[in-house]
TrEMBL record:
This is MaoC dehydratase-like protein. It comes from Cohnella lupini. GO terms for biological process: fatty acid biosynthetic process. Residues 3-91 form the MaoC-like domain. InterPro entries: HotDog_dom_sf, MaoC-like_dom, UPF0336/Enoyl-CoA_hydratase. It comes from the Bacteria. GO terms for molecular function: (3R)-hydroxyacyl-[acyl-carrier-protein] dehydratase activity. The lineage of its organism: Bacteria, Bacillati, Bacillota, Bacilli, Bacillales.
Amino acid sequence: MKKKITAEAIQQYADASNDPAAFHFDPEAAMKAGFNRPIAQGMYIMGLAHSAYLSMNPTQWIKSARMTFLSPLLSETVVRFEFETLNEEVHVTITGENDEIIASGSFSVEGGLNIE
């Protein structure tokens, strides 16, 4: 599954989560922090992974999760979510436009059959 991470969505998540870190939504602050553009919040990325998986597997729910962030996710980037399921463990890899791994992790699921 692919998704474009927009500056607007990052700003909305910052507002909803009350995240004051300016490098998430202010291009100038992002440049001062060493990024070409604002970057997405880690919890936003993990939430997107959960949402993408559950949209394909609506009878399941997530019991626990872990995610390792390997590189920043810049705004206006298209990412790909890849899932591999083994029993009740789902491994997720999030890659960017140049096939760089942005994040990887896993979550435990429970519920109905996978619809993959």
